[in-house]
Amino acid sequence: MAKRSPKKKPDPAKRLSDFLQHKGRDEPLPVYVLRGTDPYLVDKARMAVRERTIGDAEPGLAVAEFNGQEAGLADVLDALRTLPFLAPRRLVSIRDAEPFINKDTRPVLEKYLAEPSPAGVLCLEVTSWNASTRLGKLVAAKGLVVACETHEPHRVPGWLRRHAHDTLGKDLTFEAARMLQEYLGNDFAALTHAVEALALYVGEGERIDADAVDALVARGHHERVWALCDAVADVQVARALELLDVFWTEGMQAPQIVGLLRPTFRQLVRVRALTDSIGLEAAMDRAGVHRAAFDRVRRAVARFSVDDLADAYQALVDADLDAKTRPSDRMAMETLVHRLCHPRQTRGLTAHEAAGF
To answer: How does pLDDT run across 203-229, given as a tens digit for each residue?
Structure first.
């Protein structure tokens, strides 16, 4: 008789969607572990933990943030035991926490979690988590592991439709949601930015259908975004401005243009950051890059350094904020092109200085 394969143990982590549904209803726990690699989902979980821990209090007074590479155990424990100021509790958050959780700190963390401080909440952000260790069992007993990832791609269209309805007041059809997933993969940041761009594209209309996705994402726009990305990587300012002109002459305003560019650059940032540790192919898979875009992402990653991409993405974040207040400002978009082509050199310059670089 053939041996039965052992049953896979159920994941003890709570799904992010379930966690978000109750984010304001429960007392905060002493410890949270945010497990996952998608920056957008981790950020959503982080904000939910913050809201649950400090409410409307000023984060600058009630939140202590550390990086796992540099965090000192004594500093973390001091922060957890420090009484909060004008807040119900103090949140101590450690990003990229794996280097912090090592053979030296683990026994001390286990001792701390046996009797956690009533004044502090510890939040650890990790890419993976072993629930079978003593520390893992203490976290399960005292706190919560939140799975900031999706292992069920078939749920993505439904999630997108709820996001469009609840956040933007739009009816995203199931077919449109499936098309977005096909073109952009399961990168939630890219998907949500695409939905926001589509909401702007349809204007006052409440419905986002497959035709809108086809017009904004699938046809020339998607190709043009990559063409602009190529021009930026090759520092071809004139070519990048020509492509910007095409968007502009088609009636698109600044928020729509930034909304198209931002997901691509965010995905490149993530791929570039992961490449050194897990290799390019695995990084593209983990970042949700669509197979059809592999060659283009591969070329872009080879041309950009990590710092260049970080600076370029910051330029897009700044342009996004600017575009929402000045949607018809052509100068702002031209400045963005110069900042994308010369990310480090134009850092800190005024709009006129950057445009003349």
So the answer is: 887 899 988 887 777 655 667 777 888
